[in-house]
Write a structure and sequence with these properties.
Elements (H helix, E strand, L loop, with lengths): L4 E3 L4 H7 L7 E4 L5 H6 L7 E4 L10 E4 L2 E5 L4 H5 L2 H6 L2 H6 L5 H6 L2 H6 L7 H7 L3 E6 L2 E6 H4 E3 L2 E2 L6 E7 L6 E8 L7 E12 L2 E10 L6 E2 L1 H7 L6 H14 L10 H21 L2
Parallel strand pairs: 1-3, 2-3
Antiparallel strand pairs: 4-5, 5-10, 6-7, 6-10, 8-9, 11-12, 12-13, 13-14
């Protein structure tokens, strides 16, 4: 790696001021699990890294209130995985964390980094979208909020401006909704997924009242599949309805090929796994 400057501001205001919006070689760094790999590979050569590790204030920790969660952007994924508050409010999140890379990465990687990186293979973004998550974004002039589904705009692309930072992730109370995340890997169980499908559904017995369906990894970004959601809403959780939702998802999604599989292969995975994810959500798995 080439030499670079590392600065460690104490406040969020200082951190934002140190990020030059006109210089792409100046970047913030949280856990650094992805950024450091890019630097070692020579994909990114920074002039300055603005470390967020020493920021004071509400950038870390988990707050629960009436079933809703607010998770600071600098909270390590391992802390989320083992939080009793998270397990009670949204058990799908700790279940997802257990297969997200390995324990060494989860001890260092942060919630904000997992969202801001814009990598479509990340496991947290599709789950956050299915749960109706929103991010609080710190800017030079204050704060703004954005739904996670609007934060992700393309392959490794987000709606964040160069000098904006994610401050927290908010997950609303889920009520009677139940959620599941199905991850298909071509290698080890905790490997990068070839396909990720997150579902949050509210049902009355076997009747599906509403559903949010999100695909990732096989697509340029984590994306809601509204045609699949429409196919599920008002239907029975039977083979016919789930097959129709799978067909709608396969038709709707923009599938990309990579080393983990062809577009045709991933499309068939999606066709099958939408139904599996719905069943897992209804079964509480």
């Amino acid at each position: 790696m080439i030499p670079f400057e590392l600065v460690e501001p104490a406040t969020l205001k200082e951190a934002i001021a140190l990020i030059d919006p006109d210089d792409a070689t100046v970047r913030p760094i949280a856990g650094g699990t992805a950024l450091m790999l890019m630097m070692k590979a020579g994909v990114f050569q920074p002039r300055r890294l603005v470390s967020l590790r020493k920021l004071n204030g509400g950038m870390s920790g988990i707050k629960a209130s009436s079933g809703a969660l607010t998770i600071g952007a600098m909270t390590p994924l391992a802390e989320v995985e083992h939080s009793a508050d998270v397990a009670k409010a949204t058990p799908v999140i700790p279940r997802t964390m257990r297969r997200l890379s390995n324990v060494r990465v989860r001890n260092v990687a942060t919630v904000g980094g997992a969202l801001a990186h814009g990598d479509p293979h990340m496991d947290l973004p599709p789950v956050a979208i299915a749960l109706g998550g929103r991010v609080r974004i710190a800017t030079a002039s204050g704060e703004r909020e954005l739904a996670v589904e609007d934060l992700l705009t393309g392959y490794y692309e987000t709606a964040l401006k160069p000098n904006e930072l994610i401050a927290a992730l908010h997950i609303p109370a889920q009520g009677k909704s139940r959620a599941a995340y199905c991850k298909v890997t071509a290698g080890a169980a905790d490997d990068w997924p070839a396909l990720g499908v997150a579902v949050a559904t509210e049902a009355d017995g076997t009747s599906i009242k509403s559903a949010r369906v999100v695909v990732s990894a096989a697509t340029p970004k984590a994306t809601r599949l509204k045609a699949a959601e429409a196919a599920l809403a008002g239907g029975k959780a039977d083979a016919k309805t789930l097959a129709a939702a799978g067909d709608a998802a396969a038709e709707e999604a923009e599938i990309i090929a990579d080393v983990r599989g062809s577009a045709a292969y991933k499309r068939e995975l999606l066709r099958v796994y939408v139904g599996r994810a719905v069943r897992a959500a209804l079964d509480g798995k």
